[in-house]
Amino acid sequence: MALSEVERLSAGKYLLLTTFRKDGTPVPTPVWVARDGELLVVWTVAGSGKVKRLRRDDTVELAPCDVKGNPTGDPVPGRARLLDAAGTESARHLITRKYPVTGRLLVWGSRVRRGSKGTIGIAIEPGVA
Q1: What is the DSSP letter of 39?
Q2: Where are the alpha helices (DSSP H) in the chain?
Q3: pTM score, whole prediction
Q4: Residues 6+ apart with CB under 8 A from 91
Q5: Which helix or strand (DSSP H or E) is residue 41 part of?
Q6: In terms of CB atoms within 10 Å, which end of the chain has fewer, N or C?
Q7: Rounded to an integer, what distance in angstroms lies between the CA atom of residue 129 and that of residue 41?
Q8: Dihedrals φ, ψ of 85, to 5°?
Q9: What is 5-126's CATH superfamily?
Q10: Which is nearest to 98 in space by CA: 4, 9, 13?
């Protein structure tokens, strides 16, 4: 049986999340990814460029990739939304569950440096143009 897009994209260690500038220029970023039912979740710094771009345009492109952001599979379109505090906490939990050692260390370090509002979760629905 073939994997669903959510299964395929969440199976690897990294996901290439591409957001788009106002002029349409793609900005690819490798991120950690976890599965939340039929959605993908990532976790990032609240003031990052990708968050600013997503506030303006929820269109994304997704592909499995390596740590350097080199795609290792076919890209698919998607829609992303920024999560509230409860959703962000859930995304942190899913990330630490998938990446038990490094995930816990980075989430803890981020809370110490930035506080709980310094990062934000992003929910992504793949396959939606």
Answers
A1: E
A2: 5-11, 49-56, 85-98, 100-114
A3: 0.89
A4: 34, 36, 41, 42, 43, 83, 121, 122, 123
A5: strand 39-45
A6: N
A7: 18
A8: -60, -45
A9: Electron Transport, Fmn-binding Protein; Chain A (2.30.110.10)
A10: 13
Helix 85-98 and helix 100-114, axial crossing angle in degrees, nearest 10: 140
For the chain, count helices (H), then strands (E).
4, 7
Specify burial of residue 72 (Cβ count, 10 A radius: 0-12, 13-18, 19+): exposed
Which band of pLDDT confidence, cut at 50, 70 and 90, is reported for residue 129?
confident
Residues 111-127: tens digit of each pLDDT: 666 667 788 999 999 98
Q: Looking at this protein, which amino acid is placed at residue 121?
A: G
Quote the tokens at residue 105.
């260390």
Q: Quick one: how far is CA 54 from the chain centroid?
A: 11
DSSP assignment of 72-88? -S--EEEEEEE--HHHH
Cβ(17)–Cβ(27) below 8 Å: no
